[in-house]
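User: For documentation purposes, I need each entry recorded in a consistent format: the amino acid sequence on its own, followed directly by the corresponding structure tokens. There are two entries in this batch. Please keep commentary to a minimum and don't merge the entries.

Assistant: Recorded as requested. Entry 1:
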Amino acid sequence: MNNSRTKRLTILAMMIALDVILSPLFRIEGMAPMSSVLNVTAAVLMGPVYAIVMALVTAILRMMLLGIPPLALTGALFGALLAGLGYRYGGHIGWAIAGEILGTGLIGSLLSYPIMIWFTGSANGLFWFVYTPRFFGGAISGSLIAWLFLFKLKETTIFKRVQADFYK
């Protein structure tokens, strides 16, 4: 394994660890704003592929270790994908934020409905938009925190070097 790949995997592992630890600490019932912070940060720092891997591994770990339902998957994957694609093709943090809000807030929330019916075996008390307000709330608040965090961080030398390693 070459040095560049080792660096990328190390950064990915650190992002996963941060997401697994911070998401439950700064969680509001039904919202995971720290997951959105890390999705946007991963999208800007590492690109769409690594952001999706981070979201997937984090969601699986949170489900296994913390007993979180499959909402961890639907909430994170689409936000990470669209945030990564938004940043890659838009070239600005604003596009990553828009991708996170659209991916998590709308797509992730709407796909959570059929998944939770399958998971619980019942539609009792559920309707299509039951998750949308909370997912939007978490995605918007987390994306704004990410923007504040990345505003200065993206100008640092180390951030630019790590980002250049991922965006070769």
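Entry 2:
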Amino acid sequence: MVSVSLNPKELIPRVVGRYSPVVVDRGEGVYIWDLSGKRYMDFTSGIAVVNTGHSHPRVVQAIQDQAAKIIHAQQNILAHEPMMKAAVELTSTLPSKLNQVFWANSGAEAIEGAIKLAKVVTGRPGIIAFRGAFHGRTHAAMSVTSSRSKVRGHYEPLLSSIYFAPYPYLLRSPYKGAPEDADLKYFEELEYLFETMVMPDDVAAILMETVAGEGGYLFPTKRWVQKVRALCDKHGIMLIMDEIQTGVGRTGKMWGFEHFDIVPDIISVAKGIASGMPVSAVVSDKALMDKWAPGAHGGTYGGNAVGTAAAYETLRVIREERLVENSAAMGQKLMDGLRDIQADYPVIGEVRGLGLMIAVEFVTRDGGPNTSAVANVIQSCFDESILLINCGTFDQAIRVIPPLVVNDEQVAEFLGVFRRAVAAL
């Protein structure tokens, strides 16, 4: 056998931007080990994917058991227990009107499916999305994305009839007046689209991330989200909520939209749903799903038997091991600790979050985005064997998103390393 050098720089395309140089060998819980045996604490969760921790033994067993039975049971040809049991388990966590599941493979696919469903249901062409949003890199998903120009750049023409409104970024609100009323100004900008760009009866859906992810981990107010829901109701517009990063316990509730006391018409789910297997879903009311004619949407690998077996077991682990509750408790400890650090170091402009979806935004002396501070803190933490990633259009914030199995000791260790990294600035 010929020996081959596994050099990431040679073998991985340049387009796959790397957040770290680690070549991983294995993972367990909040930890991963590289090929030399060095251990790292993973506070990226594979970008909010491994909510049950790396290689949770129950999920591993479910994958192994199913792979020994059948791997590919194409859903147009064969129904199988894993996809149906996972659908039952998934919808049991949701409001009654979100009761039917279309399985797919990626977050971008779930967004594409949700947009297509909304257009079929309403018979309308338009989609309203939000500035700073990230929904994926396939063509329609890219068309409703505006977190960074490099995601869209050089791919024109994109999907037509897409309209953008500003998403609440309360730290950097451009609006004058009382800060607590900034959300009302953001909502006025959304309504202004109906006066300037598109008539409401041409809009199929308003598509929003429950929390803006790649755009900076931006958390809207309950009032703003409820006004968006009411606006959709007023004009017969579908409300699609992108729960790809916020779902499956990440925010300290099973679903991010639960924080806002509303129910969307359609949700897109991926990332944490199957502990790292490529599984996603569009979830809506069966009455709406029935408007999709047979064959109007589909995919060869959607509802994969091994993937949905992993999803079923993932959802059971989340429930039985009370990981949503742990997300809320550990998230509060992290928020408290990070705000203590902020109080000592004004280079941190804001700590914001829900559950274990937390952002630490760094600012310059004049309050602008401090990209270099973010990069330096991430590097300092890496040097102490903790993995972190950034977010925001200007890379102005650090995401703190450990697996939902993280414990007190690990939180304390992280906070100590993070404090040293900030102090070193």
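Summary note for entry 2:
The longest strand covers residues 203-209.
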